[in-house]
Design brief:
Elements: E1 4-7, H1 22-33, E2 37-41, H2 46-55, E3 61-64, E4 69-71, E5 77-80, H3 85-97, E6 103-106, E7 109-112, H4 116-130, H5 136-143, H6 147-150, E8 152-154, H7 159-163, E9 168-174, H8 178-191, E10 195-197, E11 203-207, H9 213-224, E12 231-235, E13 250-253, H10 259-264, E14 267-268, H11 276-284
Parallel strand pairs: 1-2, 1-12, 2-3, 7-8, 12-13, 13-14
Antiparallel strand pairs: 3-4, 4-5, 6-7, 6-9, 9-11, 10-11
Helix pairs in contact: 1-11, 4-5
């Protein structure tokens, strides 16, 4: 019997057009009506995830920034695993020395010490990743007016974050140099006590070493008295691998998932553009 459903957002619950389908919402609400708990597990910050989930009509708890924070439906922080200041400063400095774009998710919003041009190219990379029909160059031209760009607060130094007493949940980078991104995912955890993964081949996500979606779900389930074989997890990318291991009862890969996710999951559902989450819930409940 399934008692908890944990779903990723981008590439999973959210379509490539950045919406959550009515069929997905209806399936989630049916599950909740049966007494099954639903929780969001995403690499996004709470401020980024919450508005879209609520506007779709879903009320639930959140594991955000790959498990760096657990928040309830009202947005209150229940548990946190942040990065220490010295560690943030060292990693940001290394990324900038490697000419990488840097974005920092904090309790006070999203900040970037990268210059304006670098920020625009990073947003263009995101747009091109979600919409391949839009060239990188065209995406760059519209980047400054895009909501992704406008959500970033420019800073001169990460010191400004700590001067305002904000905590850092995640350091992120975007680049079309996927070889460099892949290399950093391997090298950074060897040099620093961090977890390094990504939502897509173009991005790097650095968190507290204990901030892993799988471990976060296990801790959450334990606090609820839910056994691992009573949990359904749904995801599509690298940062979902931790919650798609054999210890969970029902692990679902999206039809659009990367090969590593499909190989690890026990089942495969439809794509994020074809209500894959809703279909998986309907099938197993």
């Amino acid at each position: 019997m399934i008692k908890l459903i944990a779903s990723d957002m981008d590439g999973t619950l959210v379509s490539n057009n950045h919406d959550i389908s009515r069929n997905n919402v209806n399936a989630i609400k049916k599950a909740q009506d049966k007494g099954v708990e639903f929780i969001i597990t995403t690499g996004r910050s709470y401020d980024d995830a919450y508005p879209q989930v609520v506007s779709a009509g879903i009320e639930c708890n959140y594991l955000v920034m790959n498990g760096s924070e657990l928040r309830n439906a009202q947005g209150e922080i229940i548990q946190s695993l942040y990065l220490e200041q010295t560690l943030v400063e060292q990693i940001v400095a290394e990324l900038q020395q490697s000419d990488m774009y840097v974005e920092v998710y904090t309790t006070g919003g999203t900040f970037s010490p990268s210059d304006k041009e670098t920020r625009k190219w990073a947003v263009a990379t995101k747009i091109n990743n979600f919409h391949p029909e839009i060239s990188l160059e065209d995406a760059y031209q519209e980047a400054e007016n895009h909501f992704l760009y406008q959500a970033i607060n420019p800073i001169h130094s990460v010191h400004e974050i700590f001067e305002n007493d904000y905590d850092v949940g995640k350091i992120i980078s975007f680049s079309n140099n996927i070889e460099k991104i892949a290399e950093l995912r391997i090298s950074l955890p060897k040099k620093y006590p961090v977890n390094a993964t990504g939502s897509f081949s173009i991005n790097l996500e650095v968190t507290n070493p204990l901030a892993d979606k799988g471990e976060a779900i296990k801790h959450y389930a334990n606090s609820r008295g839910i056994y691992l074989n009573e949990i359904m997890t749904i995801g599509d990318s690298y940062n979902d691998l931790g919650m798609l291991n054999d210890s969970f009862g029902f692990t679902i890969a999206m039809g659009n998932a990367i090969d590593e996710v499909k190989k690890q999951a026990k089942y495969i559902t439809d794509t994020n553009d074809a209500d894959g989450v809703g279909k998986a819930i309907e099938q197993f409940l």
